[in-house]
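User: I'm curious whether this sequence folds into something compact or stays loose and floppy. Could you predict its structure so I can see for myself?
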Amino acid sequence: MGRDDRGNRLDVPRDDRPALVRRPAYDPEMFGNFAEGFARFMGTARFLAYMTVLIIVWLLWNAPFGPDRYRWDEYPFIFLTLMLSLQASYAAPLILLAQNRQEARDRVSQDQDRETTARAQFDMEFLAREVAGLRHGMGEVATRDFLRSELRTLLNDLADQARSGEPTTGAPGAEGLRPP
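Assistant: Here's the prediction. I'll summarize afterward.
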């Protein structure tokens, strides 16, 4: 839907005010990106170096070292103070805006981490229950070593019976077996 369709829609109010009275349109994402870039630049050593050089040049130019004819800010340096105050008054809201956007991103990231952790914990609990079930089931299943020991015992019993001459039909589980 383009901008021209807005005037024809019934669910969107028309704005019949003249262009001078309307609020200017701006892209909040673009302004937010600008604020973050500005805040990022103000937090660098490069910015501090530029500001330091600018202030030193300003002070030297407007102090007795600069030419008398071209000085624009004499000793109390009122204009320099005004410029630094103006810079600070614009910097503070831009830095706060950048921090708010970072906080919103951090909140989304924390929510995703919390969901991932919950899923991982659920999976670990499920796997722990499965392992416990397997351990319980393994307790009821005859292992290879158990079967070998039982067969060895049975063979030893059969061999003892064969040496003693007893019939093998009376041994439990040895029906139909004959000694060698």
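Summary: Residues 24-140 form one domain. The chain has two domains: 24-140, 142-180.
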